[in-house]
Design a protein that fits this description.
Length: 164
């Protein structure tokens, strides 16, 4: 029997779960795309406070299976703290649930939220691990960019898609 994944909006009380899930994804899924120093720098930026902030100022959607968070995605519907309207800032899927359509469900749900807010385009700065998930949903690569994470360079891909 196929279990269904439910998507809901995250709240501040989800911050610890979101932080832990993002750390599992960075340490697990992204480990095939980045070196130890990059993973350490990226993971070192994940905080409960940061995830709580994200739930207050962006739309954060959580995918749950049997009441357990298996992924989340966030989008800014208006400009806030360096994010532009339509920027998909976070997409993380628990490594134990990768390849099961969680990212697709989350990205589709985020696009629905953006359309409802009147946005015409989404952008993201995707990790190499996430690029294929975005491409499967029609995002196009704009450019490869390098960001500095406390002295450690991390490459990622700026991507965009038009909403119909």
């Amino acid at each position: 029997m196929q279990q269904s994944i439910r998507v809901r909006r995250a709240g501040v009380d989800d911050a610890l779960v979101l932080r832990d899930l993002s750390l599992r994804a960075i340490r697990g899924s992204a480990s095939t795309h980045y070196g130890a120093a990059q993973l350490d720098a990226w993971a070192g930026r994940r905080t409960v406070e940061g995830h709580a902030w994200m739930t207050r100022y962006t739309v954060v959607l959580v995918a749950e299976l049997d009441g357990v968070a298996v992924g989340f995605c966030s989008v800014a519907l208006e400009p806030v703290a360096g994010l532009q309207a339509g920027e998909v800032d976070q997409l993380f899927v628990d490594p134990d649930h990768g390849g099961r359509g969680v990212a697709r469900l989350l990205l589709t749900s985020v696009a629905d939220q953006a359309r409802a807010a009147g946005l015409l385009r989404l952008t993201t700065h995707a990790s190499w691990r996430a690029v294929p998930a975005f491409e499967r949903l029609g995002y196009q690569r704009v450019e490869v960019e390098t960001v500095d994470l406390d002295g450690v360079p991390l490459t990622r891909v700026q991507m965009t898609t038009q909403l119909d």
